[in-house]
Amino acid sequence: MTNTSSKEDGGLAAKEWCLGNNSEEARKWCVKLPTTVGSKIGKSLSSDWAKRIQAIKDNNKDALLTDLKTIKNTLSQVEDNQDSRDALEGWCKSKWDTKVINDSDNSIYTKVKERCVDSE
């Protein structure tokens, strides 16, 4: 590892060291972090997709539409209808188990937290 190594390389090296080391130092420094976006959020996926679409449909419309089209490519706009709800549910479920280590800039985590869980 060097000071120019990527976060991904550093994370993988640290993980290898922690998993392969049973020393007192490893137990002191190696904590069990959430492994998936869903476990990092610590809540359940929404079950009310109509409510979620209503809450987010006007936020960053272009990015939302682009993401939802990966699930339902015939979607032309995000509206409060069944197609949009189904696309959102599908997108959320497809991202829920994304490995945190593969989301280096937290963009998936941020989107999933905003779009896929009910706010309190």
UniProtKB/TrEMBL annotation:
This is Uncharacterized protein. The lineage of its organism: Bacteria, Bacillati, Mycoplasmatota, Mollicutes, Mycoplasmataceae.
